[in-house]
Specification:
Length: 367
Amino acid sequence: MTSCTLLRAVLVPLPEAMPDENCSYPGGACEPMCEGRYGGLFRGVHSTAGLYYPEYGSSFSALVICWVGLHMLLFWGHDSALLHAVAANIFVNGWASLGYHWTNGVTVGLIDKFSMLLTAWLVAGVCFDELTEVWFSRSAGTVAQAVRHRRLLRNGLRGSFWCFSMSIMWIVLGLEAERRRPGLFEATFAVPLIFSLVVGLVTMQPLGQLEGVRPEDERRARGRFFVGVGVALTGVTCWLACEQLCDSATFFRWFPGHVVWHVTMSWGLMHTLIWGAVLRANNFRALVRFYEPPPISAPSLSGEFVARYFLLMPAFDFTPDVQCRPSLNQQHGQQLPLSRTRQILPSPDVSAEAPAVTHVRVPSSAQ
């Protein structure tokens, strides 16, 4: 199959038809959004429902989702494969959403939905990992048998949650791919996000008591978390109001609720994930160092842009720290890999630690 054939297969729209309540597909012409039914703000609202594609507002706003995922991959310097997977799925959701709202294609509609679902359950898994670490680090002890039991219990809880979450996700994907089941996708998308929000609040101990995290980084991550939650909830409210009231209220046919949802949900989710990144830093014996634009000696357009950009789109690195308190596994005697130890541990000061050598002159007669 050539690339052109694959592209046509992905983006091909369904034949124009009115919405069908018995639609057998989870995406496509059978369930257009409000902008697709009435035209929306960017192409003019029509008095009767139909199929008005492309959805210009929802299509171009999906580029923001793509950039959020790319930003996390480019400017978040860390070694967490799970956070990389979340960022990549956000990027995939962006281009799939653009394709779906532009063409009303079935394939991109499926990818749009399922990438959302996978992202939500991956985020829930990351949050549960950090929740168990916080719980078990509070009860860490020194008795070897108790330590082994705690480690086994923690691994069992984490493994069970990951198996449960991935099973739920794939079951829903299979059911939705077979035919549309109203409310199933929405529920299984909302539940892991609500769970992640609750876990984020539970893991917020009194400031300064979080293991291996500097208070200033913790304070900044907390602020970003609450800003992200507020912005994301605003987007959810606008989206639900627009889609639910579109047929009954003319105002919501003009209101770009889906555009607001695209921008605010992706941006807000990125900010909430900063808290998860801070919690994961001690797993790598590292501290989070947020990027601070250098002071601008003379006003310049590029300098102002950089400063404002990283104010809206935070960047950070995991920097090794030898004084970072060890994580739960390291407290229990697990050694770091040699390659990572070489990056973290400073080279010993030979002159300070080596014992003094006394040179004794041997008489020639003794030779």
